[in-house]
Amino acid sequence: MGGLFSRWRAKPSTVEVLENIDKEIQALEEFREKNQRLQKLWVGRLIIYSSILYLFTCLIVYLWYLPDEFTARLVMTLPFFAFPLIIWTLRTVLIFFFSKRTERNSKFKYFL
């Protein structure tokens, strides 16, 4: 029965097909631009806020909590060496997340 109705249905013209493809391309470009803006925003905020937190924490520890013994000082400063590595890892994860999001959206639209 479906084959019978499909014979009378008008096929889309070439102009309509091209217009649909153009709309899909514009939607993909808009999503990519929005995604890039969000990526810059999130990564920028991560860097700024973590830098401010890092500087204030270093200042507070240096002024109030730094012990007199060398080994205690070394143990107290170890987290300050790990913090930039953690922030760099978070930055890498955010960039990876946004790139996968863009890639997934591109594949999804083109293969449907």
Automatic annotation (TrEMBL):
Source species of the chain: Mus musculus
Keyword Cell inner membrane among record annotations: no
UniProt superkingdom: Eukaryota
Source taxonomy: Eukaryota, Metazoa, Chordata, Craniata, Vertebrata
The keyword Membrane appears for this protein: yes
Gene field: Lnpk
InterPro entries: Lnp
GO biological process: endoplasmic reticulum tubular network organization
Protein name: Endoplasmic reticulum junction formation protein lunapark
Ranges annotated as spanning the membrane: 42-65, 77-99
UniProt keyword annotations, A-Z: Membrane, Transmembrane, Transmembrane helix
